[in-house]
TrEMBL record:
Pfam families: NAD_binding_8 (PF13450). Keywords: Monooxygenase, Oxidoreductase, Signal. Coiled coil: none annotated. One of its GO terms (molecular function) is monooxygenase activity. Residues 1-24 form the signal peptide. Belongs to the paxM FAD-dependent monooxygenase family. The keyword NADP does not apply. This is Uncharacterized protein. Transmembrane segments: none annotated. It comes from Neurospora tetrasperma (strain FGSC 2508 / ATCC MYA-4615 / P0657).
């Protein structure tokens, strides 16, 4: 894997989800040193569970560049354990076949990877471990505070976090920039947005999804609590499936105890910014833009985030050397460029989730142009501007 010359930057990343891991990998590709913080004490706590996850070509393109010491790429290893989905069949809930959407034409844009979330997550984490000279991974530590400073006579501009270790001791860690990648409840949002946690609670989408190896969405009658992921009971899911075809009901009945998750689908209003006022802390992944599952883009967009922000940091460092940009301007310039490059694109992609959900859940079945007559109306929106995108090249 090609790696740029050392940039001299030290990047702190909070969260070892796909956004955090991809940012760590891309930062090392661009010559930046990384410290990655994750609250779980073992990566097994993340990777042992999960349903299916999809990476479209705009996301999987990065995996081609991540090469293990044996010269196999992350993309190749993912493909070995993934489902090679060539089409999507859509059915009426009572079992009648409606239409088949082929993905064959998408091959020109790159790989489409569909696999078990935990297995693919572990594979990316294992690749991060091969970069141990450039990435320090600290598990079992909880970030309790973010900060940034313009600096003083003793220390120049910096950003950092306060972490709480397994022993309860607090530690202050400083770097050149902090990337908040720990999801929709990221503490980094407080610093970036200037809001207290109670001021920006997630909003209910009105739906929830029962997740195991199958996905089933339904009208939700619950409220949003501190957590929106709960153990699900098959009998509760079956109550929503009254009148559905027997195949679906039997799948739910066959789900082993403890393997069904009742996952509340929540969203945030588009944020006014992804970057803090001093330009040294940035939100990435779900911390910046949570996606509904019906977008099928949340994971891919998080990979794009990591690619873009690492490349912006590299280019800003080059500008510092070539032109009259001060060292103090490098990180703020890079993070503002990241926001400018990502803001409109990510919100356009984000909007596809509600659009698809509405077409599926509020379908007009019997009208002159209803689904029974034009079932292709239910097809996923698959467009070149989204799937054929090269985040690194564009940056």
């Amino acid at each position: 894997m090609t790696t740029s010359q050392p940039s001299g930057l030290h990047i702190l990343i909070v969260g070892a989800g796909f956004a955090g891991l991809s940012a760590a990998i891309e930062c090392t590709r661009k010559g930046h040193r990384v410290t990655l913080f994750e609250k779980v004490s073992s990566i097994d706590e993340i990777t042992r569970y999960g349903d299916i996850i999809s990476f479209d070509p705009n996301g999987s393109r990065a995996f081609e560049k991540w090469v293990f010491p044996d010269t196999s790429s992350v993309a190749e290893r993912m493909e070995e354990i993934s489902r090679q989905t060539e089409w999507l069949d859509l059915f009426h809930y009572q079992g009648e076949f409606l239409t088949r959407q082929s993905f064959a034409e998408e091959n020109r844009w790159g790989r489409r990877i569909n696999g078990h979330r935990g297995e693919l997550h572990r594979l990316v984490y294992e690749f991060v471990k091969t970069r141990k000279e450039e990435v320090e991974v600290r598990l079992g530590v909880r970030v309790v505070e973010y900060f940034e400073s313009d600096g003083d006579e003793k220390k120049g501009p910096h950003a950092g976090v306060v972490i709480k270790g397994p022993d309860g001791k607090m530690e202050k860690v400083m770097g050149d920039a902090v990337l908040a990648a720990e999801g929709v409840r990221s503490r980094g949002r407080k610093l970036v947005l200037g809001l207290e946690e109670e001021d920006e609670q997630p909003k209910s989408s009105g739906y929830a999804v029962y997740r195991a190896s199958m996905v089933f969405t339904h009208i939700d009658d619950g409220n949003i609590e501190e957590s929106w992921q709960f153990p699900g009971k098959p009998e509760e899911a079956l109550a929503y499936l009254e009148g559905w075809c027997s195949v679906v009901r039997e799948l739910v009945k066959a789900t082993p105890p403890g393997r069904l998750i009742d996952y509340k689908l929540v969203y945030r209003e588009p944020l006014p910014t992804f970057v803090s006022s001093k330009g040294r802390v940035a939100l990435i992944g779900d911390a910046a833009h949570p996606f509904l599952p019906t977008s099928i883009q949340g994971a891919s967009q998080s990979i794009e985030d990591g690619t873009v922000i690492a490349t912006c940091l590299e280019l800003a460092c080059q500008s510092n050397k070539r032109w009259d940009m001060s060292k103090e301007q490098v990180v703020p310039t890079a993070l503002k460029a990241y926001e400018k490059l990502r803001y409109k694109r990510v919100h356009k992609a984000q909007a596809m989730g509600p659009k698809t959900r509405e077409r599926w859940h509020k379908a007009d079945w019997n009208g002159p142009e209803g689904v029974w007559k034009v079932p292709e109306k239910l097809w996923l929106l698959r467009e070149e501007w989204l799937l054929g995108f090269d985040a690194e090249g564009d940056t």
